[in-house]
Write a structure and sequence with these properties.
Helix content of chain A: 25-40%
Helix content of chain B: 10-25%
Strand content of chain B: 25-35%
Structural class of chain A: alpha+beta
Number of strands of chain B: 22
Number of strands of chain A: 19
Order of helices and strands of chain B: HEEEEEEEEEEEEEEEEEEEEEEH
Strand content of chain A: 25-35%
Oligomer: heterodimer
Number of helices of chain A: 3
Number of helices of chain B: 2
Shape of chain B: elongated
Shape of chain A: elongated
Distance between the termini of chain B: 20 Å
Chain lengths: 244, 261
Amino acid sequence: MSEVTTQVSSSIDALMREFDIITHNLANVSTVGYKRTCNAFSKSLETRSTGQQTYSPGVIDLETAFDFSQGNLVETGRPLDFALYGKGFFVIETPSGPLYTRNGVFSTNQNGQIVDSVGRIVGGGAGPITIPAGVAPSQLNVSGDGSISAGGITIGKFGLVDFQENENKLVPAGENCYRMPVQDVRPVAAENVVVKHRYQEASNVKMIDELVDILMVSRLYEANMKFVTAQEETSSSILSVAMG
Amino acid sequence: MLRAFSTAATGMSAQQMMVDTIANNLANINTTGFKRSQINFGELLYVTMQEPGTEVASGINSPGGLEIGSGVRVISTVKVYTPGELQNTERNLDIAISGDGFLQVTLPSGDIRYTRDGALQLNANGELVTMTGYILEPAITVPTDAVSVSIAKDGGVNVTDPSGTSSVVGTLQLVRFPNPSGLLSEGDNLLAETLASGTPTTGTAGEAGFGTIQSGFLEKSNVQMVTELVNLITAQRAYEINSRAIKVGDDMLRTANEIVR
């Protein structure tokens, strides 16, 4: 096979993968706290064609990254819904180490501790946050820095962390959570974040953008396929000349 | 086969569940004491083809990884215990719990269930029962010769006998749960205790953490029609766009098929 054919087929492969990523974003268009995955392959083709990037044959940029931009805040009125505005994560305690999430749809468990929607304990500054027996969730007051109080008595404070420029090294762990990568990335206390009580942070997937991307991917894919067809015709005509 | 097909299918089924939930909320918009359900989605696991920070050449770590998600799933539906509007009915046996708390009822089997539906009635024996006929726990019997019955803010049931003297024949008891969203809905406005809800604390209306009883009122459902309709539109569009993704994937595979003719 010629070098060109190999390149086309790896480009087709990359486009298929990008399509998978876009559908994952679309499937999560209403997942609270979801951050879209971006894959820049089709866009890198675009920049190459306009000459902004040096062309390196055979190297295809397949890396994915999370777009941690802010999602819309939606008011729900539910006393245990929390949204983060700004950079930061809630900490979820699991037996296999902490997870980080922007999904603040919490509940209480049978012991009155604040847990996430699958029942894992949400980390406070020091251990789990327990709502005292005499306090109804609707009586909670939560200030912007994550301090929880009821009737003037402090109950606890959400442990909010930030990864600053290392945000993109986080590894997704499903259920809207991320874990730290194996290499040395440590969280710091979040500073530029506000907790909004009785709000949810909507997914930051924008349907229109994803649709445009889907169109782009499917057209590029078609173009690549045309090339394969053309290549096949050329080679068969060369063969027929050679074979007589 | 394209992973995208199953990913988009998870999106479609999740949105379908959302429509189901919204439909149930809307259907119960006039149900006394009904609490709307909220559906929670979570992403499915990612296929990590390359972790971020993998060494791609000596001394060079890739700044990002290659992770492809596989869709969405419904994690849970939770009841949202925000208060419903109180509706004045002027009926003496209608009560609304203003604040936290549930009434307890005894099923014929002897099991205890919980409800916020306070449209009470008297049965043939003079016992206070819910709309569906379940006896309140603890049972309160109103003497058959009572002229009038009223329920106080603290749940005390006052009756006046023909001679004009009034007496308290019992007090309604309320219960609270550490996690009311963990209660199991059994239909007929009844809820059952589960492991997730925790064990109930009993008390009387007006005690710390408990609501008070408003006689002559009913608590309407807390479903907001506009919010539900907006959610319905969102769900419909999201469903549509996921099905569009399947269509595009189908077209892509057809193009691939056409290479070999």
